[in-house]
Amino acid sequence: MRLLNIRTLPLLDFVDVLCPEEAKYAILSHTWGTEEVTLEDLHKPESKQLQGYKKIERCCVQADHDGYDYLWIDTCCIDKKSSAELSEAINSMYNWYYWADVCYVYLSDFSLDTNRIPYGCRWFTRGWTLQELLASKGIRCYDQHWRYVGDKGDLAAPFSAVTRIEEEYIKHRESVHTASVAARMSWASRRHTSRPEDEAYCLMGLFNVNMPLLYGEGSFKAFQRLQHEILKISEDESLFAWSLDYSPPQIGVLAPHPSVFRECGDVEPVEDPRIRRMPYSITNRGLYIDATYQTIPIDEISDSFFRVGHGTSECLLLPLKCARKAPQNDLLTESPDVPRKLIAIILVPVPGHYDDIFARCLANEVMVCERYFQSKKLWHNNIFIQLPVDTAELSEAVENSRYFRGDILC
Predict the structure, then answer these.
(1) Is the Cβ–Cβ distance between 123 and 105 less than 8 Å?
(2) Tell me: the pLDDT tens digits for 278-318?
(3) What CA–CA distances, in Å, run from 83 to 3, 46, 80, 215?
(4) Is the dihedral of CA 374, 376, 382, 386 positive or negative?
(5) Which of 55, 147, 306, 343 is most open to solvent, judged by the fewest CB atoms within 10 Å of its CB?
(6) Other CB atoms within 10 A of residue 332 CB
(7) Three-state DSSP state, 119
(8) Where are the alpha helices (DSSP H) in 234-321?
């Protein structure tokens, strides 16, 4: 880990730290502008006139004032020409923010002259700043003039209102890794990155996974690889509880984009003795899953059968081991003797393939399946569920859903 040595000011020099978890350093969280200064440009005389250089200088002054010898800033502390160093940095970044003694959040588009609370800042819309918010134990926010706004404790309530993340995760009373997969995805669902692959890469620390960086693979492939890594370490089936507003006739079981988890912030994993499940795996025929399911006429759950076009009148209702959180003070729902209303997805056979290969359909509908549990027989079998394929139809469905849900693409 390359850190700026503040004791060499006004010169900007570096020190290499092999064990950052043992070092005492400050770290910066910010949004990139048009005049950022990279490691290569840091010591060029003309760089001193750029806003990015002034931001580095001012952050160093603040860290020095607070008694820190070292500072890490993503713009100038990574050699981005080295793919190995960039990959190490991105795979380690969540931990680097976690180990930092303090995180300075610089809000370049906010001024205390106009408001006391930083609502509407660009910092809340970017993908990378999500892990910086959640990993950092000590956050101190500054406005565009480097005036102190407040710390994480002061701003937890407005941060929670803007991000829709519960305060216990923002304040580190609960580890973010205890939140459901779907909830963590929902936190990222309204955020954006400059490079499409970073929509997946910026979430690695949030899910405690690592994977190689393949810039050029595109957002879809990167996000599929991320979900594959999550499946290797987690049995949380809320990963499958996403939905699209505009659904193709058939679609894979994994999500095509983080935005499809937008309505999943209250989904949590639950155990239900009626569902038996062996470990599942990714194969060349799809997701192999030990399924407990029900067979029902498709017209019982949707009047849009004419849109499905898969040539069958029956579908599988596959309950997932997850449910919506019970409303507060709902004593009946919270009782251990009352089964939770499980979320379910709808599957149909894939035409022209084996009888045990299915695809998800009506992905715009995530069912609550309790009434079917009570009235129909449960079946148990091993099946394959197709993985998604990056098609123009699927890309259009994702973009339509993002537009329909009011996402601002920037």
Answers:
(1) yes
(2) 888 999 999 999 988 888 887 776 654 444 455 567 888 89
(3) 19, 26, 7, 10
(4) negative
(5) 306
(6) 8
(7) coil
(8) 305-308
